Amino acid sequence: MSRRLFPGFLAILAVVASTSLLLSKNGDPSRPPIIGIAHIGLKTSDLAAAQNFYGKVLGFDHFSLNKPTGGLMLNYYKVNDHQYIEIYPGLQGDEDRMTHFAFETTNIRQLRDYLASRGVKDPEGHNVEFVQYMPGSLHTEYFGKLLPATRISNHMIHVGVTIHDRAAADRFYREILGFQMTWYGGKTDTEVDWVDMRVPNGTDWLEYMLNVHNPSARQLGVMHHFALGVDRIQPVYQEVLARGYTPPQPPKIGRDGKWQLNLYDPNYTRAEVMEFKPVEKPCCSPMQHLMPPTE
Predict the structure, then answer these.
(1) How far apart are the C-alpha atoms of 137 and 48, rounded to whole Å?
(2) Which of 151, 155, 179, 232 is the most exposed place for a label (fewest CB within 10 A)?
(3) Are 59 and 148 in contact (CB under 8 A)?
(4) What is the assigned CATH class of domain 2-275?
């Protein structure tokens, strides 16, 4: 079940049956913790090809949600018990592959009241969801299950989305939601093309993809991406080769000083595999060294 807070912009999922309302000192609802990335939603034109990529190449298992009238609504590919890649059928032409992205909170009703008191929406028009996992829900029924050793990663460390107005995005993510900048960089030392905005109560981050103008569907798939954290990139590279996938390029060290490997699903969405820690000094700004929680 879901309830739309701001249609087309924000959604609140798994609403709590009863929750006391916590107020800030001035009497307004206070913001509860936002602890990490919950999922990214992506469309595909070929479910079998998507299964080969997400199930075989990336090694994730999944469960499905079906429509009441029959037919598949979506597949949930499990990165871990709290993080998923949602794959939807029905991609049409050059539409955006990303349907939405979501963050996890510890108190969904309190967050709903807090956001409603601010009257906000995502300034870029992205569909943003907030999730709390509730006892007896479809997701919690699979906690501890569908977590095979074939997974190339057990943590989604960031999601990247296009941002055209950084100041407006900062007002939403930084001032209202409490995200914190942990690094920024660009293709050159004088440009800012990427800004990493960490959730207020965890290690995951949202990556602003700046300076993107009139992208094609393939280019938008590069920008609207997700990243999987790993300790070492080379074993992952060898493993995906062994599974029959040849990346467009071998691993490289990015401008943030981290080893990374770019993989692409059948509809061009980029799955960025990235080491947790830099091995070289990052360009442009210092970086906080963050490690994900253990499973």
Answers:
(1) 27
(2) 232
(3) yes
(4) alpha beta
Sheet with strand 128-131: strands edge to edge: 2-6, 10-13, 128-131, 98-105, 34-43, 83-88, 72-80, 62-66
Collapse the DSSP code of 253 into the 3-class scheme (helix H, G, I; strand E, B; otherwise coil) and give the result.
strand
- Token pair 């700004």 in the structure block, residue: 285
Decide the pairing of beta strands 225-230 and 252-253. Answer: unpaired
Q: Which of 32, 36, 129 is nearest to 79 (CA)?
A: 36
For 64, 169, 214, the CA distances from 16, given in Å and listed in that order, are 23, 28, 40
pLDDT digits (tens, 9 = 90+) for 9-25: 345 544 332 333 444 55
Computed over every residue of the chain, the mean pLDDT equals 89
**How many angstroms separate the CA atoms of 45 and 50, rounded?**
9
Which tens digit of pLDDT belongs to each residue from 251-270? 999 999 999 999 999 999 99
Instruction: Please check the confidence at residue 3 and state whether its pLDDT lies above 90.
Output: no
- What does pTM read for this prediction? 0.89
Give me 203's structure tokens. 């290690």
Q: What is the 3-state secondary structure (H, E, C) of 227-248?
A: EEEECCHHHHHHHHHHCCCCCC
CA gap 40, 22 in Å, rounded: 29
Cα separation, 41 vs 14, whole angstroms:
17
What is the mean pLDDT of the segment spanning 214-218?
90
The answer to whether residues 229 and 155 touch, using CB atoms and an 8 Å cutoff, is yes
**How many CB atoms lie under 10 A from the CB of residue 64?**
11
Q: What is the DSSP string of 154-216?
A: S-EEEEEEE-S-HHHHHIIIIIIT--EEEEEE-SSTT---EEEEE-TTSS-EEEEE-S--S--
